[in-house]
Design a protein that fits this description.
By secondary structure, the chain is an alpha/beta fold. The chain contains twelve helices and 20 strands. The protein has a domain of 172 residues: Carbamate kinase. The longest helix has 25 residues. The structure holds adenosine-5'-diphosphate (ADP), aspartic acid and magnesium ion. Magnesium ion binds next to loops. The site of magnesium ion has 4 residues, from loops.
Amino acid sequence: MSLIVQKYGGTSVANPERIKNVAKRVAAYRAKGDQVVVVVSAMSGVTDNLIKMAREIMPLPSEREMDMLLSTGEQTTIALTAIALQALGVPAISLTGAQAGIVTDGVHTNAKIKNITPKQIRALLDQGQVVIVAGFQGQTMEGQITTLGRGGSDLTAIALAAALKADLCQIYTDVDGVYTADPRIVPTARKLPEISYDEMLELAGLGAKVMQSRSVEFAKKFGVIFEVRSSLNDNPGTLVKEETPSMEGVVIRGVSLDKNQAKLTLVQVPDRPGVAALVFKAIAEANINVDMIVQNISHGLASPATDISFTTDKADLLKARKVIDSLKDKIGFREVIADENIGKLSIVGVGMRSNPGVAAKMFETLAQIGVNIAMISTSEIKVSVAIDLAKGEEAMRAVHQAFLG
Ligand code: ADP
Ligand code: ASP
Ligand code: MG
């Protein structure tokens, strides 16, 4: 008998028909004698719609209330999934994140899991129940509902697999696995049989939303091997696991495009020590993640000044702008310019470590199709560039063609 954690994403539970399909798959595993814990997302579009409604009332709503609101999406799905299993004659029970024992810190809308006490889940499994857990949510020690960041049901599944020491963790979605690029943008993309945690982490953090990046970080930390596969067929998926020596043989594993980035530029910042520290400390204190940073000295001015640009998630743009505006008098820059029309294009692969010239080839490919590079950042296993959003998909296909055919 195996203990299996299965996660079904939004499109896999998009309507009652799909939920019935999920129930059939779960029932088939249970009929083999396995114990199954099912994590579900909100039905596709529900979370976005709830956010939209809140923002129609107020552009920057309270984060506590957003968690209260968004957690309802997953609660609808757990109940419907339990009902679908019961309709098949399978004993099943739904649990909220809190009931499942998921305890988080208090960072509303982006909480981290502090610990999981799966006592209740274990007891229910031992009674023969299929346990359906609401993804993406938890509870603070003080009893406040929190959510785990967009795509957070992936994290719920991986964290539960770790806490329960599950034999298998399966992430069911609407594609057959992890591809060399988003197959919706690059038709020639290929499914990868396996990928290392580090590569998956980079791809996920750089726009490949097939997995939430924090969930991959968690899987790496706790050594949870998981499979990404389709809920619509029985094709084998992609195994995500520790790097093996043979993985280095491939220079570029995948290409990703993040369309959800925005650039903020502080124009004519006085060129003195401590200014960058002031800006990025305030941004960090507001829990805003910054990725690329570029600073350029402006020449020809009476007193020395620089322009500082940085990128954040589009969702954090309003918040970041508010933080920067509050520093205006203290720092004395001229103005702030926000640019939402950027795309971050990245190539990722552990084989890059031992293959020089990868960045040059990427820049050359972009030059050939007339794409200008606004910012660059690199790590040992990735190269990212910020480019014009309108040219993002064309550039992605060209770069995929250059490295992966
Ligand atoms: P779910 O609702 O199941 O969580 P998501 O929409 O979050 O599913 O993630 C699946 C989607 O991720 C796919 O439909 C695909 O368009 C997109 N995607 C982006 N990059 C990749 C990639 N490299 N491989 C596979 N899918 C990708
Ligand atoms: N429903 C949440 C979202 O749309 C969490 C998830 O689907 O994983 O981000
Ligand atoms: Mg997802």
